[in-house]
Specification:
homodimer, mainly alpha, Arc Repressor Mutant, subunit A, Four Helix Bundle (Hemerythrin (Met), subunit A), 12 helices, 4% strand, DNA-binding
Chain lengths: 238, 238
DNA sequence: GAACACAATATTGTTGACATATTTGGCGCC
DNA sequence: GGCGCCAAATATGTCAACAATATTGTGTTC
């Protein structure tokens, strides 16, 4: 029996080896999904806008069925809403839902901060500590928000990667793609980036000294602070 | 090996059972999705088993395209894995992934406990407090695990409903449908249900007196305790 | 000129047929 | 008897035509 299994395994490996598919540039569903995700996240397609299957099928040069399939995924992630026989529209975010997304984000990012601290040697955070020391402050002073946001993304992605929890990572991803434009608007609120920077430093300090529980607590405080800023300026953000 | 046996079984079933479409009863994708979810969650379809589109299409009396659509959703929820040209198999859970699911579950249930406490009048928990006082203890004493599990589900669903956060609710749902069989096995571990009951009472007491922060803290402790039990008896659970 | 009914158009939903890849079964060979 | 190769069978992937429904446009009536 085991010999038989071995034979089968070899055969599979042999087959799988020659996977060179040439010619005919096919547009994969993943590529379409990614493109639409980016457009919706960047508000290139505004909330409430209708997505026509035919137009998208023509644009990507694929049959309508493929677009339909992608719509299914987009719907399950909450990025679009589908009404039977009436098509798909980009989900409209109201303030209430944004707060609920932030409540979930708070606990998930807190979790990731703790797990990250526990999983990797504390020295590995030194480069981020350094970056958040002088450079990030200078970005703010110079009004270079793009560089600041890059530094923010860097910290976030490193933390999630170090946490090593694909479940949490995927959930956070689905939150980011729904709120990325909100995040960008919060950062430019008066005084918010400065306060946030100070909080990030505190979180990083806790991570640097290997205190996972404190990193989680501080990260959650940071998220609550962001939520409060959002609430204070709600009329300017949404 | 077991997959092979299952294949044979399905083939036989296909021969024997006629489609038998009664009239024009249309089966919605949602119904199919729900059925498959339940089968996978209840391990009626065991992990690693292959799902054949044709068989399912014949069983539900729908075109294969519909099954395909449902597979897309199932895949995005992590319940199945699809390999190009080789079909869909039920995701196999290893211990590592279960722990990661529990880490996320811990923070999300903690969040819901807090939100629930903050959102509804504290008196509204009295019926659950009463139920967890004597009846639940009796269920355990009598070995009536079904009744105990029902009480457990009741508390959980009430908490999530009161929390009023559809994002967290959906995420927790996707965790439950992947770990429901683990939950059932943890409960019958020696001494686990008794310890759990005590912890649930503590959480409920905090909710009853309107202390959301404490409810969250206790709920998280409860989850960690469950995770420890799971770790201790890992060889018996998975 | 506004409101309604009804046809024309456009868009979404459904289906079976066809194309491609993989698994299975059989044959000759060592 | 085991191993590898080739063909048949089976399963999955793709597609474009057809059906059902919603939206738009038009003409008529009050």
């Amino acid at each position: 029996m085991s010999a038989k299994l071995l034979t089968l395994k070899n055969k599979l490996q042999k087959r799988g080896a020659r996977s060179e598919r040439s010619g005919k540039a096919v547009v994969t569903p993943e590529a379409i999904l990614e493109t639409l995700r980016r457009r919706i996240a960047g508000q290139e397609i505004p909330p409430g806008a209708k997505l026509r299957e035919q137009d998208l099928a023509a644009e990507f040069g694929v049959p309508r069925t493929r677009i339909r399939e992608v719509f299914g995924t987009l719907e399950s992630r909450g990025l679009i809403e589908r009404i039977p026989h009436r098509g798909a529209v980009v989900t409209r975010l109201d303030m209430e839902l944004v707060f609920k997304l932030y409540d979930v984000r708070e606990v998930l990012e807190g979790l990731c901060a703790r797990l990250a601290t526990e999983n990797v040697p504390s020295e590995s955070w030194q480069d981020l500590v350094d970056h958040y020391n002088a450079p990030m402050a200078n970005f703010l002073k110079d009004g270079d928000f793009d560089a600041y946001v890059d530094g923010y993304d860097w910290l976030r992605q490193r933390t999630i990667a170090a946490a090593g929890n694909p479940i949490a990572a995927q959930m956070l991803d689905s939150i980011y793609e729904r709120t990325s434009f909100v995040i960008r608007r919060i950062i430019i609120l008066p005084g918010r980036a400065e306060a946030g920077l100070e909080q990030h430093r505190a979180v990083l300090a806790a991570m640097r000294r290997g205190d996972g529980a404190e990193a989680e607590r501080l990260k959650r405080l940071n998220m609550r602070s962001a939520k409060e800023a959002l609430n204070k300026f709600r009329n300017y953000v949404l």
